Structures are given as structure tokens and as C-alpha cells.
Amino acid sequence: MTEATATRNPPPIVEVSASDFPVCCPPRGVDPASLHPRVYLPLKQDGGQIACPYCSTEYRLKS
């Protein structure tokens, strides 16, 4: 028998700017009902990055 192996795609990376604050996932304009509850992420404005606790999407501040 052949064993099935699952491959996982890496989580998406979203670059945001200071004008996008406060940062939330799913982003504004996306209906959160079909994804996960909207959460606001405490991304620091000094070059920070943070991952969503639900979907692992990574948010990074543009340099």
C-alpha cells in the first residue's frame, strides 16, 4: 500500500502599512462569516510582524 502524504501550503503573508491600522484578520471588506471570527492583531508600528491565531496568516509592516 502507498501511504498518502499531505502537503501544507505555507500561510499567506500580508504586508500592511501604517494607514491599515488597526490590523484585523480577516481584513476589512472580507465577510468573516465564511472564515473565522474577526480578530484585531497588535502589530507594532516599528517593523513588527504577527500571525493570526486562527488561520496563521502572517501580517508584516512594510518597511
Give the helices and strands, then pairings.
Blueprint lengths: L12 E4 L6 E3 L13 E3 L7 E3 L6 E4 L2
Parallel strand pairs: 1-5
Antiparallel strand pairs: 2-3, 4-5
Account of the 3D structure:
With 63 residues, this protein is mainly beta. The protein has one domain. 0% of the residues lie in helices and 27% in strands. It is built from no helices and 5 strands. It has strands at residues 13-16, 23-25, 39-41, 49-51, 58-61. The strands form 2 sheets. Strands 1-5-4 form a 3-stranded mixed sheet, with no helix packed on it. Strands 2-3 form a two-stranded antiparallel ribbon. The mean pLDDT is 84.
Brief sketch in words of this structure:
By secondary structure, this protein is mainly beta. The chain has strands spanning 13-16, 23-25, 39-41, 49-51, 58-61. It starts with 12 loop residues before the first strand and ends with a strand.
Contiguous helical run count? 0
Mean pLDDT equals 84
Query: Per DSSP, what share of the residues sits in E-state strands of 2 or more residues?
Result: 25-35%
The biggest sheet, with number of strands, parallel, antiparallel or mixed sense and barrel status, is: 3 strands, mixed
Uncertain segments of ≥5 residues (pLDDT<50)?
Answer: none
Features:
3-stranded mixed β-sheet; two-stranded antiparallel ribbon; about 0% helix
